[in-house]
Amino acid sequence: MRNVVVSGGSRGLGLGISKALARAGFTVIALARTEGDLAECPALHFVPCDLADIAALSGLARRLGEEFGPVYGLVNNAGIGLSGILSTTSDAKIEQIVRMNVLSPLTLTKYLVRPMMVGRGGRIVNISSIVASTGYQGLSVYSATKASMTGFTRSLAREVGPLGITVNAVAPGFLDTEMTHGLDQKQRDQIARRSAMQRMATIDDVAAAVEFLMSDRAANVTGTVMTVDAGNTA
User: Beta strand pairing status for 27-32 and 122-127?
Assistant: First the structure.
């Protein structure tokens, strides 16, 4: 059984990804501060942690290895999407977003990719966003952090590719999650109308993309960004 770690895996998109991977036969370890809805999913394992505590991530990786064995896959899903105009966003809030959306996934990957390198195989999927390439008013800091994941994905793919490890990103469009609850119905309708499919993508759509990239079918897919947005950026 292959172990896959999903950060922020207890609710929203992370929970959808966790469930999809568990159905596909992976042993899924969901990392989050709270268990969320995982109590209803006996196939999933919950490990409580504060992913913003960068100094604790090495110990977390060691604990996962001791409790579950080598990690085969990692989904860097956890993140925060606080909105606000850059000129009025506090330095503390900028630091909070960068810490959670950039420093945390890079550092967690650093420690969890090591057993993959020893085992000469594995999968890493980073959750980005379409705003990394399109931009969106009030999300300049968030967009910057998600754009950084693209460069990280492509460079790390070259570093670890010779060891049989693939690294890819999935860039969802606007989904019905906590991160988009600030959008009113008019904004949601506008997003749907400008999409090729005339609708918004779903959590299940994104989870299916992650499941594919984790599978053996994607053995030669690496360094890519897969967009899942119902054609919003087409």
Answer: unpaired
Kindly give, in sequence order, each residue whose CB lies less than 8 Å from that of residue 23, ignoring residues fewer than 6 positions away: none
pLDDT in the model for residue 225: 97
Predicted confidence (pLDDT) per residue in 40-91, tens digit: 677 799 999 999 999 999 999 999 999 999 999 999 999 998 888 989 989 9
Question: Strand 165-172 to strand 122-127: parallel, antiparallel, or no bridges (unpaired)?
Answer: parallel
- Tell me if 166 sits within 8 A of 157, measured CB to CB: yes
Provide the CA 184 distance to its chain's centre, in angstroms.
Answer: 25
* Residue written as token pair 């993959």: 116
Residues shown for the chain: 234
- The C-alpha atoms of residue 111 and residue 194 are separated, in whole angstroms, by 41
Q: At what angle do helices 12-23 and 203-214 cross, to 10 degrees?
A: 50
- Distance, CA of 59 to CA of 56 (rounded, Å): 5
pLDDT tens, 122-154?
Answer: 999 999 999 888 877 778 999 999 999 999 999
Predicted TM-score of the model (pTM) = 0.93
Q: Which residues are catalytic?
A: 142
Q: Name the token pair of 97.
A: 């977003």
Structural domains of the chain, ranges and CATH numbers in brackets: 3-222 (3.40.50.720)
Residue pointed to by tokens 């109308």:
193
Give the single-character DSSP code of 161.
G
